[in-house]
Design a protein that fits this description.
The protein has 337 residues and is of the alpha/beta class. The chain is built from 13 helices and nine strands.
């Protein structure tokens, strides 16, 4: 018998693979350390409009249409939270023109959620009163989104004074097919909005420009701060929800806000997409009278409130904005300037 010995060909060993190791290492580490996307869902409270009684319905429809147009231009996929009491002309008389505003929003492909019929918060009302307000607040919009997910936003972001109350309300909302939407970017937008509204009704173009410019500058700083906070708390980026309101400031300057997010490399996502972030499943035991956003709630649980990243005055608002937002809603002290 003739035995033939064939010398095996060298396989890829560590030795002959060594020249490729630096390349492979860079590839693997680079893949693992690629930054998560910067994503945000825009949320608008108090639909159809803040202080709705001050405007004719035609004006509100025009404002919502303008807002929709710019949101669609930037492929934003927002959600609005409705207070259905604003659909009534009188206590028991629904205004069909106001109901049409819901259809206008939904036809744009946007989501809508419940913000309580009368915007009752859990600090000022009993759990039973709160639950009644939730159920009253879905009679009109819920049938219009049949088959879609129902979302809820706590009025004033107040989740309950005690953990027992909070868990009871969470159970109630779950039983009624609601998902609670958190807030991660909770700026003092409402203060700028009150100031802007006063300038708006006073037709003071100088202050309208000043307030809107300062608003965008403030938001830019606040978004940067939130990015640092999330990195500190969670060691990664998260999907964000930004709190906004249906008001003149956001209608007039939404394009500037959207451009700001684009400049910071954000992608706009829907509420459903944002809720896929596992960060919103972590155990959250915060309860209290303070209407805190999600990040401040977690910081509060970890006893970080008051530290440099989580200080109440971490980003100062202009003094004149504080003055305007604290005075009577209709008072504009800078008339003629």
């Amino acid at each position: 018998m003739l035995l033939v010995f064939i010398k095996p060909r060298p396989f890829l060993t560590l030795f002959n693979f060594r020249p490729l190791l630096p390349v492979l290492l860079v590839f693997l580490l680079g893949t693992a350390l690629l930054p998560q996307k910067k994503e945000v869902c825009l949320t608008f409270d108090d639909f159809p409009y803040v202080q709705m009684g001050r405007y004719p319905v035609s004006h509100i429809r025009e404002s919502i249409t303008r807002l929709i147009d710019v949101l669609k231009k930037y492929d934003a996929r927002p959600i609005a939270f409705i207070n259905e009491i604003q659909l009534y002309k009188e206590e028991n008389l629904i205004d069909p023109r106001r109901v049409e505003l819901i259809k206008l929003w939904l036809d744009a492909g946007f989501d809508m959620g419940n913000h309580g019929f009368r915007h009752k918060d859990l600090s000022s009302h009993s759990p039973d009163e709160f639950k009644e307000d939730v159920l009253l607040g879905e009679k009109i919009f819920a049938p219009m989104i049949e088959g879609k997910q129902k979302y809820f936003r706590f009025p004033q972001l107040e989740v309950g004074n005690t953990l027992e109350v909070k868990r009871d309300i969470e159970k109630f909302l779950e039983e009624n097919d609601y998902i609670i939407l958190p807030i991660t970017i909770s700026a003092a937008e409402y203060k700028f909005a009150i100031a802007y509204s006063k300038a708006y009704f006073s037709k003071n173009e100088k202050y309208k420009k000043k307030i809107s410019d300062d608003y965008i500058e403030y938001l830019s700083k606040f978004i940067d701060l939130v990015e640092k906070q999330t990195e500190y708390l969670f060691k990664r980026r998260i999907k964000h929800f930004m709190l906004l309101h249906m008001n003149e400031l956001n209608v007039d300057h939404m394009e500037r806000l959207l451009r700001l997010f684009k400049k910071k490399k954000y992608t706009f996502i829907s509420a459903g997409e944002a809720m896929t972030d596992s960060i919103f499943t972590i155990k959250n035991t915060y309860a209290g009278r303070d209407g805190l956003g999600f990040i401040d709630q977690i910081a509060s649980i970890r006893r970080l409130m008051g530290e440099s990243l989580f200080d109440d005055k971490r980003i100062n608002l202009p003094e004149y904005v504080l003055e305007l937002s604290d005075n009577d809603f209709y008072d504009f002290p800078y008339e003629g300037e």
